[in-house]
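Attaching the record inline, Q. Sequence:
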Amino acid sequence: MPNWEKIAPVVDMPCPLCQKRLCRLIVPTVWDAPDSAVYQCDACKLVFIYPIMTQEEEKAFYQAEFARYMSLRGAAGETVPEEHFQKNQVEAERRLSNLQPYLRKEMSVLEVGSSTGFMLSAIAPHVASVSGVEPNRLYADYARGRSIKVFGDLAEAGDKSYDLILAYYVLEHLRDPVDYLKRLCRMLNPNGTLALEVPNVDDALVKLYQIESFDRFYWQKAHYYYYSHETLEMVLKRAGFNSVAVIPEHRYDFSNHLYWMLKGEPGGKGKYSQIFDARMDRVYAECLKAKWLCDTIFGLARKTGLLAD
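Structure, as predicted:
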C-alpha cells in the first residue's frame, strides 16, 4: 500500500467517526458499489467507504441477499446453511482456542452475527448458556433448528445482560460502530468481556505486496469501516471500554497469498501445501503478526476490571 498521507488527494468531507473534514481519497473503486470510494480521515486515521447503503437497502441486504453476496465472493456453501455450518468447524476451533482462557462454566454468552450457530455450538459445552443475534432468516432458522436461541436483532435481546459478548466480523459492517459498541457495553455484566475480530486494514496483500486485483476484491460495499490495531483500540475506548487489548491474528496460509500474487484471485488456500507445509505457514504467520501485516485483529475489551482477571 502506498503512503496515503503523501500521495492521496485531500477531500473536503467529514469523517463519519470524528467529524473532522479533511479526508483522503485512497482507493477509487469498491466491489459491487460503483458509486463508492475508500477514504482515510487525516485526523483519526480511520479508513471508511462512502457513500454506504441506505438503512432500507442495508436491512434488505442482510435479511435476504447476504448469503448470495458471499457466495459470489467465492465463499462456497454460503447459501446452504448445513454446508456453511460444517465448513466453518475449523474456524470455530480456531476462535475457541483464542477464547479458552477467558471462559468459565457459569458464563452467559451472546454472539452478535451468529450466522448458522457454528461458533455458539462450539462454545456451548464450556459455558452456562448461549444466544445469538442474526438478521439473516436462513441462517437464524438453521441455528434455531440446532436448539440455539436466536434473536433477529439486538433490540429483541431485551434488557438481559451477559458475561461474554462475541462479535466476529461484525464491526466493519456497522454504520455507527461507536453507538453500537456502547449498546454492547451496556449489555455486559460487571467485569464482562467483549471479544471480537475484524479484518486488518494493514493486511500484507494490501500494504506490503500491493496487489491490484486484491485491492479490487478487498474493498467491498458490505464493509463500511476498515480498522488497524490503533483505530480499533480507539473506537473501543470511545465506546466506553476502559480495558482494551488488541492481538494480531492470521487466518490465511502462504498458499493463499502466493495464489493472489500469481493468479490475482481468491481460492488458493492449501494450493501449494505439498511444498509449503504447516511449519512454513506458522513461521510466515508469525512474521506477519510481528509487523501487524496479518489479515485479522483479535480484540478484547472490558468496561471495568482488568482483562487478566
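The CA atoms of residues 63 and 136 lie 4 Å apart. The chain has a mean pLDDT of 93.

More tomorrow.
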